[in-house]
Amino acid sequence: MRRIFSALAIFTLLALLALTGCGGSTTTGSTGVTTITLYSSGDVNVKNLWQNTLIPEFKKTHKDIDIKLVFSEHGTNDTATFARLSAAVSANKDAGMDLIESGTVVSQAAQAKLLVPLTTKEVPLLNRVDDALLKQVSSFAVPYRASSVVLAYNSQSINEPPKTLNDVLAWIKANPGKFTYNSPDTGGSGSAFVQAVITANLPADARANFISGAEYNASLESQWKPGLDQLKSLKSSIYRNGFYPNGNTAVLQLLANGSIQMAPVWSDQALTSLQQHQLPDSIKLIQLDPPFEGGPSFIGIPRTSTHIPQAETFLNWLLGSEIQAKVIDVMHGYPGVQWSYVPEEVQKQYASIAHAYATGFASKFSADMNKQWQTQVAGG
User: Fold this and answer.
1) Are residues 95 and 116 in the same domain?
2) Which of 91, 139, 264, 330 could serve as 193's disulfide partner, Cβ 3.0–4.6 Å?
3) How far apart are CA 139 and CA 132, in angstroms?
4) Domain total in the chain
């Protein structure tokens, strides 16, 4: 135990010392230009969004603020970045970052209260954001884009797609071999389908606890049995008598080659595949009622940033209607604001999926759900 503590202390100390050479925020006195640093992580499409669209657009109307992008592909530096942020705030020092956009870092930082609390006073357009999303991070960050799991179907063979989960389940049994979903531990689209079936069999208060994770108690998971039994009963009607592909992309490939006619998919991945003609035009997308789960990408401001007003200016700009429309266009996803605040033509373009989405289970319950699905459904 002593060795573990020593190693942790050394790591934190090194993270803190690294702050002096982080190349963080600066103000150029002669030009009056302030440079703020944005840390972001994810796939290359996220990097391109910042580098090729958002930062250049912001600069057009804010000549006095430069944005330096520090990008970590696939989040390989997220753990070290959170350690650096935590050490800086503990020492009341600048973390060398003025904005952070990373699912892992932002959620941990919000929970640890390492970020600046945000209100409509500092970020007026925050009033366009769904309160339920802000509650996920206790108003320590702003959702600027999102994605949701939706139902994809082949319109050549399906004239009237199912509108509810019960309709989907009935369709699966009436059309054996034409539907599948990826194993939930290999992608969010499969996880969303499993959660939807489990959730449909739960009372409202139980659903809320599994989502919030406020009370983690594995014994509560006995309430999942009706949903897991229902998923097991579908097995013989699933593609190839129970073939669950690995990953979201594999499901899209089965849709593309006609092996299946219906499946849950991520909205952004499917829309991108349609635009790039990797999916046939006959594949259409709809959201169920109640909807599948989805999730926003949050961006926040470190508490010890030396340029908080400039960072808040950027966040407010990011929530503007035209900028949100650009985010949707580039990422083929959802806006961070409510749909009513994006241009009408964009709403019409995404009308089939422009709805609210459900929230996923808390991480511990989600991990348990994946394990139980594996033993009771796939292996049952």
Assistant:
1) yes
2) 264
3) 10
4) 2
Q: Summarize the confidence of residues 190-210 as an average pLDDT.
A: 95
- Residue 42 forms beta bridges with which residues? 73
What are the percentages of helix, strand and coil residues in the chain, rounded to 5? 50, 15, 35
Instruction: Compare 118 and 12 and report the one with higher pLDDT.
Output: 118
Shared-domain flag, residues 221 and 368: yes
pLDDT at 3 over 60: no
Q: What is the pLDDT of residue 27?
A: 55
What CATH number has the domain bearing residue 21? 3.40.190.10
- What is the structure's pLDDT at 11? 45
pLDDT of residue 29: 52
Distance CA 138, CA 227 (A): 31
- Alpha carbons 355 and 342: distance in angstroms, whole number: 13
Residues 151 and 137 in one domain: no
For 255, the token pair is 């849709």
Closest to 195 (Cα-Cα) out of 220, 231, 161, 168: 231
Cβ neighbours around 46 below 10 Å, total: 19
Degrees to nearest 5, angle at CA 86 with 361 and 92: 140
**Is residue 6 in a domain?**
no
Return the ∠ at Cα 58 (arms to 53 and 60), rounded to 5°. 100
Whether residue 16 sits in one domain with residue 129: yes
Tokens 């969004």 map to which residue? 49
More confident residue, 2 or 251: 251
Q: Which residues of 153-176 are buried (b: 16+ CB within 10 A; e: fewer)?
A: bbeeebeebbeebeebbebbeeee
> Do residues 92 and 194 both lie within one domain?
no
Q: Same domain for 225 and 373?
A: yes
What does the block give as tokens for 319?
Answer: 């929530």
The answer to whether 198 and 369 have CB atoms below 8 angstroms apart is yes
Between CA 307 and CA 98, with CA 53 as vertex, the angle to 5 degrees is 15
Give this prediction's pTM. Answer: 0.79
Two structure tokens written together for 293: 């789960």
Which residue range(s) make up the domain with 345?
A: 11-146+296-349
How far apart CA 340 and CA 290 sit, in angstroms, is: 19
| Cβ proximity of 361 and 195 under 8 Å | yes
